[in-house]
């Protein structure tokens, strides 16, 4: 009798384990192990501590720029996306022009343009009434660049909603914009959350390009550290590690959100 | 048997020589039709005969190519007409229900009341609860559309349209997407509406409903009205050959 009761749960346990073994996200495990090793290595190494101390303020700038630029890009993208699905030919042409031009340019070129062409032009045209700081130039450049990609994400989301939804809303007397706001967009945004999350991660990485505008972000601080100490190994390892921590955390977050919404 | 002599009011819908072309397809090809207040008109006809397009022109989901539509004295085909205000007066029920999936049954019914009619939340919810009771599913107020059966969804859709207190209700094949056992629950709600004196235009091949509720039957084919008569006459003595052919196909 004792044999039977002890055998059964073990059988069930073994079976369960075999299934879950494949379900374990091994890449996460490996990264955590590397993370533990690196943390140890870093904390016990004088040179790394020095590099981290120097570079860490750049993380704050990178986060700040990414969050602000992304928020702005969400607004630009929404407006451009709505124009892209508009029946008004002028709005459609303007938004399509914006999307096609921006998507055809490298992000680095857009940033240099924002910093060295558009910003000085606005400053001169307004006789210094409007001036942008380096940080603002970087944020605006990233937002304009990503706005074009997000516009296409919004457009795809809006177009994925069945035509009957707009018809039902309009037939109740709602205006086009009311139908968009209360019926179409709430459904569309739920569907595009995963690509929006991925673009946020992509922007975090692309924000490193603002180092070219002499903004002291994570990468720029790393470069400064290397040029001062000539310790490229420790410097860029620290930079890479800090980027990885942020992007991996975000991609886990995106997965979680994705799973929660797909269940609901 | 059923004496359904009812007093019909003045003309509420006047349609003159309505045409709607999609490219080379002439979906509606010259329809003239008058409907009186309180009248129930059932439109039948083969698929592609222009029934749905006619209905959709009445609340301007389709813009007519030519012709005139006058709703309660207002020419809706004229320029500068407030089409949104007009639509709020005309309810439409679709074949595919088209409920808003991100909102509960109650919110489906209150949304347009609040946004279009500018009613306060309490008032809109009171009306919504009353209408849910009227269509027989008061307990489903907090259910989302995907938690409801097809018949329940369609009844919520009817309640949603009624919440705007429309003068006219349009039904575009309201039971065609339903499983057989759910058709009756929707038709019962429609019969009740007809008895209350709602002006109704119904595209449907539910002959039981037509017999019980229709004041007039219209057979459409190739974008025009072929026959216009009472349900009794249509079933006992159809005049046109086309009508006989069509009826022989749908009646078994």
Description of the molecule:
- The complex is a heterodimer of chains A (264) and B (252).
- By secondary structure, chain A is mostly helical.
- Helix content of chain A is 84%, strand content 0%.
- Chain A has a single domain, classed as MetI-like (MetI-like fold, Orthogonal Bundle).
- In chain A, helix 3 (46-84) packs antiparallel against helix 9, helix 8 runs antiparallel to helix 10 and helix 9 (218-229) packs antiparallel against helix 10.
- Chain A is flat and about 70 Å long.
- In chain A, 30% of the residues are buried.
- The model of chain A is unreliable at 1-16 (pLDDT under 50).
- Chain B is an alpha/beta fold and 252 residues long.
- Chain B is built from nine helices and ten strands.
- In chain B, strands 6-7-8-3-9-10 form a six-stranded mixed beta sheet, sandwiched between helices. Chain B has a four-stranded antiparallel beta sheet with strand order 2-1-4-5, with helices on one face.
- In chain B, helix 6 links the parallel strand 7 (168-172) and strand 8 (199-203).
- The longest helix of chain B has 16 residues, at 180-195.
- Chain B is globular and about 55 Å long.
- Chains A and B meet through helix 7 and helix 8 of A and helix 2, strand 6, helix 3 and helix 5 of B.
């Amino acid at each position: 009798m004792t044999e039977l009761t002890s055998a059964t749960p073990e059988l069930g346990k073994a079976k369960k384990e075999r299934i879950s073994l494949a379900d374990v996200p091994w890449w996460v495990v490996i990264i955590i192990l590397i993370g533990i090793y690196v943390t140890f290595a870093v904390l016990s190494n004088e040179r790394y501590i020095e590099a981290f101390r120097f570079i860490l303020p750049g993380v704050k700038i990178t986060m700040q720029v990414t969050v602000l630029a992304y928020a702005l890009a969400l607004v630009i993208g929404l407006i451009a996306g709505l124009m892209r699905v508009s029946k008004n030919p002028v709005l459609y042409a303007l938004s399509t022009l914006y999307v096609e031009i921006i998507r055809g340019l490298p992000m680095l070129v857009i940033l240099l343009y924002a910093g060295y062409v558009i910003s000085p032009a606005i400053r001169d045209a307004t006789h210094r009434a409007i001036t942008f700081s380096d940080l603002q130039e970087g944020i605006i450049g990233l937002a304009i660049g990503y706005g074009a990609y997000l516009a296409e994400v919004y457009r795809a989301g809006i177009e994925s909603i069945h035509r009957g939804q707009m018809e039902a809303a309009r037939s109740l007397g709602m205006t086009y914009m009311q139908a968009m706001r209360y019926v179409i967009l709430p459904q569309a945004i739920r569907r595009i959350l995963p690509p929006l999350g991925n673009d946020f991660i992509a922007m975090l990485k692309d924000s490193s390009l603002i180092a070219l505008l002499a903004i002291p972000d994570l990468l720029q601080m790393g470069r400064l550290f290397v040029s001062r100490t000539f310790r490229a190994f420790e410097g860029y390892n620290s930079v890479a590690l800090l980027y990885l921590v942020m992007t991996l955390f975000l991609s886990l977050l995106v997965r979680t959100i994705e799973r929660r919404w797909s269940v609901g | 048997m059923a004496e359904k002599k009812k007093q019909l009011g003045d003309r509420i819908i006047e349609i003159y020589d309505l045409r709607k072309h999609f490219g080379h397809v002439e979906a509606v090809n010259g329809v003239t039709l008058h409907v009186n207040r309180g009248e129930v008109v059932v439109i039948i006809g083969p698929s592609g005969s222009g029934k749905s397009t006619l209905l959709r022109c009445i609340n301007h989901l389709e813009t007519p190519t030519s012709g005139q539509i006058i709703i309660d004295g207002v020419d809706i085909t004229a320029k500068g007409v407030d089409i949104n205000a007009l639509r709020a007066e005309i309810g439409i029920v679709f074949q595919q229900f088209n409920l808003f999936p991100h909102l509960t049954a109650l919110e489906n019914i209150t949304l347009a009341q609040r946004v279009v009619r500018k009613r306060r939340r309490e008032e809109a919810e009171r009306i919504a609860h009353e209408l849910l009771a009227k269509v027989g599913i008061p307990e489903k107020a907090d259910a989302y559309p995907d938690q409801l059966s097809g018949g329940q969804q369609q009844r919520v859709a009817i309640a949603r349209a009624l919440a705007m207190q429309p003068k006219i209700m349009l039904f575009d094949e309201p039971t065609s997407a339903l499983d057989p056992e759910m058709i009756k629950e929707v038709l019962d709600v429609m019969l009740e509406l007809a008895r209350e004196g709602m002006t109704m235009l119904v595209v449907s091949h539910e002959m039981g409903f037509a017999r019980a509720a229709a004041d007039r039957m219209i057979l459409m084919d190739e974008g025009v009205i072929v026959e216009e008569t009472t349900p009794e006459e249509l079933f006992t003595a159809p005049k046109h050959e086309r009508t006989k052919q069509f009826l022989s196909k749908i009646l078994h």
